[in-house]
Amino acid sequence: MSNIIEHFKTLTQIPHCSKDADKLCDFLVDFAKERGYEVEVDSTKNIYIHKGTPSLCLQAHYDMVCMGKAPQIETYEEEGWMKAKDSSLGADNGMAIAMMMQLMDEGRVLEFLLTSDEEIGLIGANEVAFDFKAAYMLNLDSEDEAEVYIGCAGGADITAFKQDSYAEGKGDCYEVAVKGLAGGHSGVDINKGIPSAIKVLGRYLAQKDVTQLASIYAGERRNSIPANAVAIVRCEKLLENEGGVQVRKLRESPMILSEGDKLIALINAFKHGVRKENRELGIPDVSINLAIINADERGGVTIETSARAMDADSLDALTYETVSFFEMYGFESKVEDKYPAWKPDITDFTKLVDEKMKEVFGKSKLMAIHAGLECGVIAEKYPKMKFASIGPTIRYPHSTRERVKLDSVEKTFTVLDKIIQSV
């Protein structure tokens, strides 16, 4: 176990934010080759590592969502959890990579698929085309111990743009800010009552009848619940702090967006969060995250959202509804990085994984997750392979509160070892 944690700490010191993980890619390639494994890297920086004729392929992504001070990560342990000081930790999915490194240290006859840029639309998984030998693939990107995941949500990023112009404004100028909210994963945390900084800001501006918007910079990542949002506005009446909204009067007299009132109305009207529950699975069925809104100095307004659904029809319906909503406010929309749902399926492989989970934890549940796992994408490419997903307990990924339960890592690795021996 200590070796896994040490491997993980090594990973935290190598920058690997999405779109900027080349240093970690090179490190992992060298690590595998030094231990006698064959390595292939494709054009999207997916890494395929293999030895002998394995029956099992282990899969994880090696990029991370960088929040706060990341990629500068300082880890510490507290009451059985590993955390990071003022940054995301990268346990999603770095702890899985650390487990793989331990298995390579042991020289196991396995395949390893390490995918790139999962956190920004499963980009690497969409391009996987390696010649796998194994009949089974075990994804290590789940975030709850004693659970075996056999299905996941599909998703799409819906972006919108409008070119506005600037006009003269009236009244005093204010900075209106919502800062330092908890944030969280836009899929697995979307039903946990975590407030969106964008929605809190929009509600305040609408309630105060603010219609003059000079600029807005809100949200951090498409797949993170917004923790921060700041707007510069003008208003002819006094604005003051209220609840979690911080107001600061400025001496400036900026121009305002000609249709800033419509943008404020859009933010207030947008139905962020869970749209429908899946009572059978006990998770959200349909959700959308109003992730980022920015206005540039030329009056261009950009909106970014992340939509998820447990089936293709629901995702298509949500996508159509969102595009139509943006069009009502004069925006042009695009649908990007769409990926399929992984329909829950019980197989001999999922039964085996479930059995080994029970041997270690004394319990297990077959589950689906309201987030994108790469199993859905890869399963479409390799229909003869059988898939399952497990992982140690990780809380609040994609935020500066991210943490991983250390004894869960040890036990999950024991489950993994039992699966490898049985397959």
From TrEMBL:
Keywords: Hydrolase
Coiled coil segments of this chain: none
Domain Peptidase M20 dimerisation: 177-239
InterPro entries, A to Z: Peptidase_M20 (IPR002933), Peptidase_M20_dimer (IPR011650), Peptidase_M20C (IPR001160)
Gene Ontology CC, one term: cytosol
Entry's Gene Ontology BP terms: proteolysis
Position of the signal peptide: none
Stored SUPFAM superfamilies: Zn-dependent exopeptidases
GO molecular function: metallodipeptidase activity
Protein name: Aminoacyl-histidine dipeptidase
Source organism of the structure: Sulfurovum lithotrophicum
Lineage summary: Bacteria, Pseudomonadati, Campylobacterota, Epsilonproteobacteria, Campylobacterales
